[in-house]
Each structure stands twice: as structure tokens, then as C-alpha cells.
DNA sequence: CTTAGGG
DNA sequence: CCCTAAG
């Protein structure tokens, strides 16, 4: 297992103990089978590598899965002692697949991915060229736009940048790596300039020089915002510059301690993503140059350069540092983070192109030699896409909708017990019939819909219904639940696992319960009043009560029209609503006193 | 695990 | 309903 490569590190702030947890590529001999297998190791004080404990792994994954994946991704830039080539190839595989997916719409499946490259970005480049202020860009489509944005930004900030000619003579300066590394013979290399020379830049080109050094912090922050679409409060110039640089170059090999900006240029950083194909190919060769790059700009001041190398844990750093720099009021939830990155993405990506916005979707599935299917998704984090291996820790709770799509083959099995859907499918374990069945026995949803002119009639009907349900329980319900309970969205995902309309009896029971135990004592209400309804968790009760309150108050003013809302939902008898309101008022007023 | 709230 | 943050 072990090629030991320093990746996650320099997180002294984070793991300021003697040991740091880092991620290393899993490069055992038969690793081909699993492109996204990484191993966590801990670097002990003496530099030894110790297998990370589960907790540590968890910690890493939890505290920052993005960064973890980051680190993983950045691995490719490291001079791996193990089998760089293999690693690269693996990367290549997934990249290619990605590419295929990305451009699946306008390109016929071709075994020669390289050939298809040029057209890939053609449209973007064309578009880009029309943009006056566009400086040379050599990044994938999405990044292109970003850059454009960025450059405008720089314009405003009067950052010096000179537009580079689109023709081939632009090798100047920065992109040393590229010119060295790209194989001249590669189809792409030849095809691109030839086909596109007149109307689009060569991919090997480098964008204009950007001088972050001279920018005041404020400008840096602005730049940061422009780059990542969000504000930052960090005042650390160094951090900002580095962060921006990383965002701009979409590269991770920005040394922690040193700016990658040298002589007013981005130095030693190759756009990792100049066009995907390039990226792929360059991955192999990049090793050498990039390692040297480290030496070049890897050490100039400040002793934070570790013996172990450069920090690639920038995502974490991003979070942790930023956090540190500006106390965040509230800890962002995972979802928040996701959304943030999504918005980030959108705000940066100026317009259309669905593919861009779908970036965070599952993007590639690499089927490795074995039967193991690895799903990865790309997380647009801080302006950089990161491929995140779908490992079990990524999401510990119920999988998101689209996950269901992946499970499609099992859906039939699932449908059979749609009601039981609560079980956690995450770990690719097909739900075993046994594990789920239980709750299917609840009262079946009732079709109280029409004929409800008579409330009392309804009520009794409902009650009967409930009883009946209890009797015949699990058997017949499945059909209903499949339709109403787990509607399949177009994408194939499941919107909700089960939607069970509240029967009137349930509502009344709830109201009773509230009157008895008080609103908020959901667990008690559930325990006592709802013991017979296996479903309806305390949360459900709470939610329902909330809805009832809403309904009651919403409807009360014009009492007349209230009794039934025309929409399908249940028509809650007015008297119940009245009860609800009474209770609500009582409860909201009384608590201070006694009761 | 339970509540409270936002989505 | 679902998902989370806080207790």
C-alpha cells in the first residue's frame, strides 16, 4: 500500500498535534482496480507513516471531505515514488470518461478521445474571442468563463495584464511546463492549432500576467470574490493571493507558503485544466516539471515549508483559515457548503450551458478492471472542480435523490416496500427485504377525496379506514405507495419516499394529544396517542401540527370558505381547526403560568 | 434521541 | 416530508 506522498498537510492549524493525517494514493500492485482508492496515513512525529485509524479517517472525511478529495487530486502533481504513470493513467481514464459525458451531446462516441478534444472547447473559445477583454485563456469551458470574469475583474482593478495574441507565438513565459510536456506528436497538439489557429487560441497558451502582489488587500478580496463568487473576510494577503491563484489556475500545486506569483506573473503553475485532454495527457509528464516548480517557488521566505512538501490541503485551509480569519457566525451545514459552491459556480459561470451547471452531478463512472464501480462527482469548490469519490463517508444519511437512479436495478425490489424506504441505502447494500418491511403495515392512505360534503361522514369513514388498515396491514398497500408514496422524478430520482396523507382520525388524535400533553411534547404524544400508528414520527407530528396551526389561522378570518380548500389535500373539518386554534392560543399563553 | 425550524 | 442544528 504504500506510496507515501505528502498531500494533506501544512494544516498545522488543524492538526497541530505531532501527527498529521494525510492521504496517500493507494498504489499497491493491483491498484488498477480502484482508481479512487486512497489510503489515509498518519505521519508520526518522527516522520514514520502510520495507518490512520478509522476515527482519523472519519475525521478527515467529515471535517473536510472536499479537501480530502482535493488532496487526492493534487496527488497527481506530486512526484510519486510509486507508480506515477499508473496513477496518471488512472486519472486519465476518469478524465476521459468525464469528457465523454460532458460532451456527449454534440459528439458521436469516439474511441479516440484525443481527436475530439479540439471541438470540445471550440465553441467556448469562439465565444471567448468575442469578448474584448478576454485574455488568453487556456482552461476548460467553465473555467474559461471564470477567467473572463476574472479578467474583467482585473481590468477594474487595474491589474496589469496584457492580452496575448491568440496565435501560436504565445508560449511566452509562464507555461513552461506545458510546452515541455505536451507531446508534439499528440493528435491534439497538431489538430488544434491547425483547425483552430485562426479563430481560437492555442491551448498551450498562457493567460496574461496577473500581478497579485501589488494589490491591496481590499483588491485581493474583490478578486477573491470575483474568482469564487463569494465574499471573503480574510485579510491575510498571502492567503488571499494563494487562494486566488489556485482558483485561477485551477491548480492545487500552489505552495502554501509562497505565492505563486513571481515577477508579476503566475509562475510555475500550469493551468491544470487547459482543456481537458491536455490535462489528461499532461498529467503524465507534469510530474517532473512541477516538482521542479516546487523548488523554484516553493521556498523563499517563511519557514512554513515543510520537510514533507507543499500543502495541498487547500480546501481545508480555505475553510479553516477563513474561519479563523473571520469568525463565522454559524457553522455551515454540508448542504450549505454544497449550495454555496453551486451558487458560486453559477455566479461565476455567466450564462447558460447546462453542462456547466450540472457539474456537480454525478459526472463519471469509472468501471475498473474488477466489477467495482466507482462513482465520482465533481464538486465545484471555490471555483475549482474537484472530483470527489463517492465513498461511503461522503454522505452518511439517506442518499440523495439521484442516488436512487444508480440503484435503479434494485428499484423493483425497493418498490415492493416503498414504505420502508427509511433504511439507509448508502453503502450500496441492496435493501434486504427483511430490513424494510416492517413499517409497511401502517394504515393505508385513504381516498377520502370526493363525496366529502359531509364532514362527519368523512370522519367516520376515516376512522373505519384506519381500523381496517390496521387489520389488513402490510399486504395490499404497496401499490398505493408506489404511486403516491414514491413518485419518480424524471431523472429517475425519488422525490420523497413516502407521502402519506394524514387521515382525519390521525389529525383528531393529534389534536387530542396536543391538548393533553401540550404542543412540543411530540415524543410523548407519539408515545401515547400515536402508539397505534407505527409511522408518524414525533417529527411528523410536529410538522403536522405546524401545518394545522397554519391552516387554522389562515382560514379562520374568513371562516366561511375554509372548510375545504379546493385543492386535493385533506379538508380539515372546521371544528378541528377551531380546536387547533384554541389549543394554540391556550398553549402559547399558558406556559408562563403553570399547566 | 428530541425539538425546532428551514426547505 | 426531509434535513439539520442544537440541546
UniProtKB/TrEMBL annotation:
Q: Where is this region: Disordered?
A: 435-456
Q: For this UniProt record, give its keywords in alphabetical order, as a comma-separated list.
A: Nucleus
| Coiled-coil stretches noted in the UniProt entry, renumbered to this chain | none
Residue ranges of domain Myb-like in the record: 502-549
Q: Per the UniProt record, which residue ranges are transmembrane?
A: none
Superkingdom of origin organism: Eukaryota
What Pfam families does this protein's entry cite?
Answer: Myb_DNA-binding (PF00249)
Cross-referenced InterPro entries: Homeodomain-like_sf (IPR009057), Myb_dom (IPR017930), SANT/Myb (IPR001005)
For this protein, the record's SUPFAM superfamilies field holds: Homeodomain-like (SSF46689)
Give the location in the cell: Nucleus
Domain HTH myb-type as annotated: residue spans: 496-553
Against PANTHER family, the record matches this protein to: MYB-LIKE DNA-BINDING DOMAIN CONTAINING PROTEIN, EXPRESSED, TRF-LIKE 6
State the name under which the record lists this protein.
Uncharacterized protein
Q: What is the lineage of its organism?
A: Eukaryota, Viridiplantae, Streptophyta, Embryophyta, Tracheophyta
